[in-house]
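Bit of a strange request maybe. I'm writing a small parser for structure token strings and I need a real example to test against, not something I typed by hand. Could someone generate the tokens for this chain?
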Amino acid sequence: MKSIRTKLIFYFFVFVILFNIVSISIYVSSNTLANSYHSSFERFLLLNSISQSANKLYENTKAYVMEQSEENQAAYYQSRRSMMQEEERLQNMLSSEEQIHTRNYINLIDNIIYESEITTGFVLRDDIERYTAHLKETESTASYIQETTLHLIDLELTEYQTLYQDLQERNEAFRWFSFFVFTTTVMLAVFFAIWFSNGINKPIQTLTRAAREVSSGRFDGEPVEVRSNDELKLLGSSFNQMRASIHELIEEIKDQSEQERLMKELELKHLQNQVNPHFLFNTLNTISKMAYLEEAKSTSNLIDSTAALLRYSLGDIEKFVPLREEVRAVKEYLTIQKTRFTERITFIVEVDDECLDFPIPRLTLQPLVENAFIHGVEEQEEGGEIKLFIYQQEKEIIVEIADNGKGMTSDKISSILNFSKEKPEGHIGHSTGLGVTNVIRRLQLFYRTEHVIEIDSQPGKGTQIKLLLPKQFSLADNGSREGGNDASTDSRR
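Reply from user aminoacidic:
Good idea to test on real output. This should exercise your parser:
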């Protein structure tokens, strides 16, 4: 599968190579014209320089003939050396065909060099007649070189005119070539841009329409078809799979909702066959009043505590209450247990009043205290002790419930802390039907944190449970705020 990135890199390199080819072609053409112009111009300069050097060679030869001094001799040799170098440059510059046409010109250069050398040789022999004749020959050769130079320059100008016309034609062709390259490049760029953008835009538009259908609640639309072989095809396939999965999930939720509705109907019918708990609560209140009238105060207090605990347990377990309500329920429970076990068990409650307004799920503390009583100290004949401490630290409010009962093994502690929602609840309370794992799970969901409890226990040395309630908790971040505090509602039942 080709990726969009691979396509972009490929198109980029195609255009880079195309522009480089065009640039190299333009450079080669321009360089060819520049070299032709440069070569022609250099020949003009060289021919003119040869003409001047020939005349200078004659003048220096003549000066040496007139006066045989070392200075004139050095000037002669210098001019002869220059003449020979320029002859060599001319031979290297001209092609074989041009050398045939300019052979006479090169022969003249050789001749003037030769005549000047003969002249200086006869000067050294002091042969006046001969060096005079050769000096005249040198003069005539120099004059003829100047005339031939003018003729050659005239020929070069004629060729230069042809070169200039060719240069103009090439310049015009280059103008049209540039226009053609520009037009072709723009057309290719537009074509590839439209083709490439359509390859991306069409699938995206198709996915956008399908996404609008999904957002409007339609999950049974036609599958999205993406014909490209890049990431968009994978995106389309993933979208189709996601829409199908959502549709199946919604159908499953509808089926499950129907099953829950049927279960609630069965549960309602089951509850209708049971004693109404409010009727039981009102009956306990009546018995309490009768016991009070008969001056059985202990019995009346016991019944009042039982009724209060029953009334509190009838509240919605999904709602939160202030911590003071939980403490009050624990005290009512302890009143009942004190009446039952008298001096066998001691209860100690120490609470920081500044912590009592902190929100906590309903029926959190009483099940834990009841668990400490039932599984900790209930079997002791004497000396049983249960403590409830509530205090605050820097970041947390600590609720500590401790007993000096039979304790638990480390395996038992691990099974409580690492409970699974799929497993049945163990060690449920007698009065509320709520156990430790149920309390832990509700605290985790309510405060949205996993670390809400610590358990320290050893067999035969009692158990200490600490609830860690985060101070940074905000009701605005928890769905329970919709239920609000319904403790006042409970109190009026």
